[in-house]
Design a protein that fits this description.
This protein has 63 residues and is mostly helical. 70% of the residues lie in helices and 0% in strands. It has a domain at 26-56.
Length: 63
């Protein structure tokens, strides 16, 4: 499947946003690395998976 044009740019922007959120989350380092690899290897599908199953908390956030 080829993603190009405006749709491809939007997917790239949202993937970068997701990776920034993953890095800032309170999840374990291993979990962060796995999610980042999944998003890099499967940009659209990985993003959808992360939105559904990914870590929710932020580092330093109060419970």
């Amino acid at each position: 499947m080829e993603i190009g044009g405006i749709f491809g740019l939007l997917v790239l922007i949202v993937d970068v946003w997701a990776i920034i959120n993953i890095i800032g989350s309170s999840a374990s380092t291993t979990s962060k690395v796995v999610w980042i690899v999944v998003i890099i290897l499967l940009p659209l599908f990985g993003l959808i998976l992360w939105l559904i199953f990914g870590p929710r908390g932020r580092a330093g956030a109060r419970p």
